Amino acid sequence: MIWKKFIKKFFNIQYFNKIVSIKQAIIVRMDLKMGKGKIASQVGHACVIGAENVRKTHPNWFNEWWINQKKIVLKVKDDVELSQIQNEAIKFNLPCFKIVDAGMTQINSNTTTCLSIGPAPENDIDMITSKLKLL
Length: 135
Prior knowledge:
- The chain is an alpha+beta fold.
- 44% of the residues lie in helices and 29% in strands.
- It contains 5 helices and 7 strands.
- It has helices spanning 2-8, 36-57, 59-68, 79-91, 122-129; strands spanning 13-15, 18-20, 22-29, 71-76, 96-101, 111-121, 133-134.
- Strand 1 and strand 2 form a beta hairpin.
- Helix 2 packs across helix 3.
């Protein structure tokens, strides 16, 4: 088990001699016209809930991600596109979690605002999100 300690020093997980970086992607719906503060709040919810989900289901990914907490925030036009991205993540067995607003401020209750994918291997997340634009 000495080799595991060696790998831990380099902030990556090694699978079959291939270094894999771990990151989290947050995808935000733009059709809701949320204010900047509301978007920040929803992205914060997605980061925390997504990470906690992965901590329980994929502790190795979480532990590796926790070192640098790499993340990216992307945008989609509407709920249909968000659902398509979620379905792709599920198809590739990536942990994902939709954030649904409570409806106390700008958004109606039970409205999906964003999606967290990961933390998971960066290459896997990029297969699904590479066509999306940065928020």
